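Budget justification aside, the reviewers requested a transparent look at the raw inputs and outputs of the sequence design task funded under Objective 1. We therefore reproduce one unedited record. The lines immediately below are the structure tokens for a 211-residue chain.
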């Protein structure tokens, strides 16, 4: 799950107390895909929250992995990688299976004043992965998993706390947080990363997840 996400409107990082290095070129992500550098927030000991770029995904044996289940974070696979990050997003994409094929849905915050989502991540030598939790009621009809979303006030705790305490912060998002918007097919290809990726499905209304 969570094989694609968006940061279509970049926030004012200074207002979020996040340092942006002068050399970092920050651009919107309309179709953030695995295998490419994406924006992440990290924090060195006693340092500020800092925006940077890391490649999404890591090589584990023969597999390229982009997500880590919250329930498996204690396994040896992840236990040695205790560095953490937060991935800023304003939505993520899931594909719902229908009689007509797979339909891309853009899952976004229902609060227009609070569009930014913070996804918990792990930093590895060759990239990062997004941590997932069981799906909330908003998402369950589409996919059984979803990104681990952190409230803004928990960002520093996720980055700084001892591992056991940090893992306890990863709860399934509350119901009523997300809405699903049907998209057109352009977002299906990772070769596309432009505003047209987020054009709504022709003549579609907002999907009612509860019916």
């Amino acid at each position: 799950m969570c094989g694609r996400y968006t940061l279509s409107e970049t926030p004012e990082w200074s207002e979020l107390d996040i340092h942006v290095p002068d050399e970092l070129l920050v651009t919107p992500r309309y179709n953030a895909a695995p295998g490419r550098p994406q924006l992440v927030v990290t924090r060195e000991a006693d340092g500020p929250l800092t925006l940077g770029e890391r490649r999404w995904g890591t090589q584990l044996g023969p597999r390229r992995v982009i997500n880590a289940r919250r329930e498996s974070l204690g396994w040896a696979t992840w236990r040695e990688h205790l560095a953490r990050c937060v991935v800023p997003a304003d939505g993520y994409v899931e594909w719902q299976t229908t009689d007509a094929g797979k339909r891309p849905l853009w899952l976004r915050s229902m609060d227009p004043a609070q569009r930014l989502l913070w996804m918990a991540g792990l930093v590895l030598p060759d990239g990062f992965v997004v941590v997932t939790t069981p799906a909330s009621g908003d998402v369950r009809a589409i996919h059984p998993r979803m990104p681990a979303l952190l409230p803004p006030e928990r960002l520093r705790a996720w980055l700084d706390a001892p591992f056991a305490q940090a893992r306890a912060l990863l709860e399934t998002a509350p119901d009523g947080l997300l809405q699903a918007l049907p998209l057109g097919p352009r977002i299906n290809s990772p070769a596309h990363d432009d505003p047209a990726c987020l054009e709504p499905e022709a003549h579609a209304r907002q999907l009612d997840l509860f019916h």
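The chain has a mean pLDDT of 90. Helices lie at 76-79, 155-160, 163-168. Computational costs for records of this kind are itemized in the attached budget.
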